[in-house]
Design a protein that fits this description.
By secondary structure, the protein is mostly helical. It has 2 domains: 13-90, no CATH class; 109-324, Orthogonal Bundle (MetI-like fold). Helices cover 73% and strands 0% of the residues. It contains 16 helices and no strands. Helix 2 (33-41) crosses helix 3 and helix 14 (278-288) runs antiparallel to helix 15 (291-319). The model has no long low-confidence stretch (mean pLDDT 85).
Length: 331
């Protein structure tokens, strides 16, 4: 098991370097520093002196890959590649192009509000997906199964924006049960987070239930289920112990992708509910064309996804004895 996890961890390092180089190519080769300066300055970009000053004040005036005019190691370290891209690998996130504030402290301030929204939405969605899918598979073809599938199709057919706007109008403006938007730490935090969390859970249901229902139906048709029923085991024990355990591997395969989509969805939630989290920070950077922040968030999104994949590998070791014994292979 340890060798398996070390091998998976070793894959993360070259993958991170590759993602970093890809982000560099997108931000500095496809879209050059001159293009960034023109987009940031807008109407003021007509003067070459203003373009040069903007690039120099933000370190974009350095050579992209190789600084032939420098001496020694500075030929590599005094480049845009090193100062703006590779530095992300060891946590040097730099400064915002617009506000000039350090990006690292700004992100740390916004992590807690984002987690307060993301974790409840993720955990509640995963739990509801599994429970509804299992009960639907257990009652296959019945009224409960048909109603759940109909509900899933309806939920998947409506945009997340509709849920946000309708929730704010119905529960905040009409019923006045929750604030329309905002975030306040402390005793009143749950009141501000109730509507965003419920909205996020409702908008995330549907696809997961249908996927997990298919997985559970496949497992329920296997020989070990028929053997367990012949031995007289209760239906609840068969479902929640044997079927669920054997369906965990494809479920944990889908979890990292859900984490990535959850981060994207939180951009909408945090923006519409005025939550000072990472999603709102990213949207603000996109609006103001803050390339340093956008570049950092793209890279951190990749890191989050790879950490999710590593977490799924750990779940494989716990769920599949073949992996722990060294004979299993990731599907």
């Amino acid at each position: 098991m340890l060798i398996y996890l070390l091998r998976r961890l070793a894959y993360v390092i070259p993958t991170l370097i590759g993602v970093n180089l890809l982000v560099f190519a997108l931000f500095f080769l496809v879209n050059t520093p001159d293009d960034m300066a023109r987009e940031a300055l807008g109407d003021k970009a007509s003067s070459p002196e203003q373009l040069a000053h903007w690039k120099a004040s933000r370190g974009y005036d350095l050579p992209l890959l190789w600084n032939g005019g420098a001496a020694g190691a500075a030929k590599v370290t005094r480049t845009v590649l090193w100062t703006k891209s590779l530095s992300l690998l060891w946590g040097d996130l730099g400064r915002s192009d617009m506000t000039r504030e350090l990006i690292g402290p700004a992100l740390r301030e916004r992590v807690v509000p984002s987690l307060c929204v993301s974790l409840p939405v993720f955990l509640a969605t995963l739990l509801l997906n599994i429970v509804l899918a299992m009960q639907s598979a257990r009652r296959r073809g019945g009224a409960f199964d048909m109603n759940v599938q109909l509900l899933c199709v309806l939920l998947m057919s409506v945009s997340s924006l509709i849920y946000i706007i309708a929730g704010q109008y119905a529960f905040a403006k009409v019923m006045r049960l929750t604030p329309v938007s905002g975030f306040q730490p402390g005793r009143d935090m749950a009141l501000f987070l109730a509507l965003p969390v419920v909205t996020g859970v409702v908008s995330s249901l549907g696809g997961g239930v249908r996927l997990y229902r298919t997985l559970f139906l496949e497992e329920m048709g296997r020989d070990y289920v028929r053997t367990a029923r012949a031995k007289g085991l209760s239906e609840a024990r068969i479902l929640y112990v044997h079927v669920l355990r054997n369906a965990l591997i494809p479920i944990v395969t889908n979890v990292p992708l859900q984490l990535l989509m959850l981060m994207t969805g939180n951009m909408l939630l945090e923006n519409f509910f005025s939550i000072p989290g990472l999603g709102g920070y990213t949207i603000g950077a996109l609006r103001s064309q803050d390339f340093a922040v956008v570049r950092t968030m793209v890279f951190l999104g990749s890191v989050l996804y790879m950490l999710g994949m590593l977490l799924s590998d750990i779940c494989y070791c716990l769920a599949d004895p073949r992996v722990r014994l060294g004979g299993g292979a990731r599907p």
